[in-house]
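Entry 12.
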Amino acid sequence: MQITLNRKDNSTVALISSEGIVINNVNDALDLMANVRYQECDKMILRKEQITDDFFELKTGFAGEILQKYTNYQMRVAIVGEFTGYNSKSLNDFIYECNQGNKILFKSTEDEALAALHQS
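Predicted 3D structure (tokens):
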């Protein structure tokens, strides 16, 4: 895994690069957040392929647990990828609701994610 920082004005976003899954469980998510915080950053972008598929099965509670911890520790996150392939109304509603705020975002492209995270 590699963390690259993208800076714009007074805003810094951590871009997470990895060929494999970075978040398999809650401890992985907390370790990643600690690594990003160590870079003096409170915003990050992950690709959906870097997160275990359990995250996108809302009935597991995995997404809620991780995103609640990130929100509590004031870590803003954008998850980048194509989400239309999921045939889950609850997941689509969840993504819609997240995108109404500015803490947890689901975006189609890295450029959209960077723009949103640098904005505020």
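Annotation: The chain is about 40% helix and 25% strand. Residues 2-119 form a domain with the Transcription Regulator spoIIAA fold (CATH 3.30.750).
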